[in-house]
């Protein structure tokens, strides 16, 4: 199958990266060699990485400054909307006295376990849904139906099915991810040019070889992007998963603090989830850029 494998990479590069690369190269060169203030207000103008980074950091600091000023000026009730400095102080105390790092580690393990399980199941099922129309016609209505069900409404059923252990938490996180991801994978598969499939069959590839060595490789850039997006969705179900008879995890910490109206601790837990998500997303973006330089 080395012939097919060797043939797919040039196809992807010639058809998509080649065309895109030829068009995008001048813009990137302009972005890294020169920058004008007017580019900030020009539609879809490229920005050098250091400018984008400076804008992101500056906007975040400005938002925090406005929040701090509003809170210190007494415009909000600190019981309901504490200042960023109070949230930061609460987070420091939680790391020092309440094992916040351990709770964060537990949550990360749960999210990644559920996410990897969803990805391992969704990728082949999504490819088969798009590759074989009969299979897609049979399974897509079921997936469409389940993905619209609210996850919180299924908490009682998940407890009946799996009890109150780790299985329930993983199931709820998986439930919020799998049915969305499988449809995104099917869409990625549909976008693989039909010419790739025909060429693979012409040189004698078997159906499973076409799926593995041609379609999967061609759809990989879009697939990695969709995995990154659905990983973020998985984090949004953490609170629901970790209020089910939990004694660990960031969701448990947040829910416990809520009972005693410890708003700074609640917000510290929420901010930490956001920081973990942001860091993970940036790492996956970097991986995507390095793995698919031809895009």
Any chance you could write out the topology, listing elements then pairs?
Blueprint: H1 2-33, H2 49-72, H3 84-97, H4 100-131, H5 133-147, H6 155-162, H7 166-190, H8 194-202, H9 207-236, H10 238-241, H11 250-259, H12 263-291
Oligomer: single chain
Low-confidence stretches: 1-31
Count of beta strands: 0
Main beta sheet, described?
none
Order of helices and strands: HHHHHHHHHHHH
Percent strand equals: under 5%
Specify Rg, calculated over alpha carbons.
Answer: 23 Å
- The helicity comes to over 70%
**Helix/strand class:** mainly alpha
Please state the average pLDDT score.
86
Structure notes:
The protein has 295 residues and is mostly helical. The protein is built from 12 helices and no strands.
Index terms:
mainly alpha, 295 residues, disordered N terminus, 0% strand, 79% helix
Condensed summary:
It contains 12 helices and no strands.
């Amino acid at each position: 199958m080395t012939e097919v494998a060797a043939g797919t990479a040039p196809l992807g590069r010639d058809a998509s990266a080649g065309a895109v690369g030829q068009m995008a190269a001048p813009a990137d060169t302009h972005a890294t060699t020169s920058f004008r203030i007017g580019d900030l207000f020009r539609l879809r103008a490229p920005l050098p990485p250091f400018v984008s980074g400076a804008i992101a950091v500056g906007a975040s600091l400005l938002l925090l400054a406005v929040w701090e000023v509003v809170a210190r000026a007494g415009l909000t009730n600190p019981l309901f909307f504490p200042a960023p400095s109070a949230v930061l102080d609460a987070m420091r105390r939680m790391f020092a006295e309440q094992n916040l790092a351990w709770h964060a580690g537990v949550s990360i393990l749960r999210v990644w376990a559920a996410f990897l399980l969803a990805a391992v199941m969704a990728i082949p099922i999504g490819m088969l849904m798009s590759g074989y129309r009969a299979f897609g016609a049979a399974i897509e209505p079921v997936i469409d139906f389940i993905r619209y069900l609210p996850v919180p409404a299924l908490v009682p059923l998940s407890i009946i099915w799996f009890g109150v252990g780790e299985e329930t938490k993983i199931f709820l996180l998986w439930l919020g991810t799998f049915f969305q991801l499988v449809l995104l994978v099917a869409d990625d598969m549909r976008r693989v040019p039909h010419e790739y499939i025909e060429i693979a069959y012409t040189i004698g590839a078997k159906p499973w070889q076409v799926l593995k060595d041609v379609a999967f490789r061609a759809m990989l850039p879009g697939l990695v992007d969709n995995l990154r997006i659905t990983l973020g969705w998985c984090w949004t179900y953490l609170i629901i998963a970790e209020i089910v008879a939990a004694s660990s995890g960031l969701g448990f910490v947040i829910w416990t603090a809520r009972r005693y109206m410890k708003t700074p601790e609640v917000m510290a837990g929420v901010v930490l989830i956001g920081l973990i998500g942001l860091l993970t997303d940036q790492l996956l973006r970097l991986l995507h850029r390095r793995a698919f330089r031809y895009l």
